[in-house]
């Protein structure tokens, strides 16, 4: 009888640990699928939000600073900010040394 209780306690503990450690993985996966946005570059002439149209170099720089301070790491961008980044960010391979 003691043996059955001991084995049952171990099995219950293992089941609880398995449940606890598997939750963050499935939760993270569903969050990523929901917030998956394309950050493929677009031409600035293709922007649709008024706040992203016809910006000077200074306005672009200011907007990048604003966006940089507005979001935490891994926080998804708003559609408007994502469009701005797609239109005005250059890839590391675009820079000349």
TrEMBL record:
It comes from the Bacteria. The keyword Signal applies. Residues 1-29 form the signal peptide. Keywords: Signal. Residues 29-49 are annotated as: Disordered. This is Uncharacterized protein.
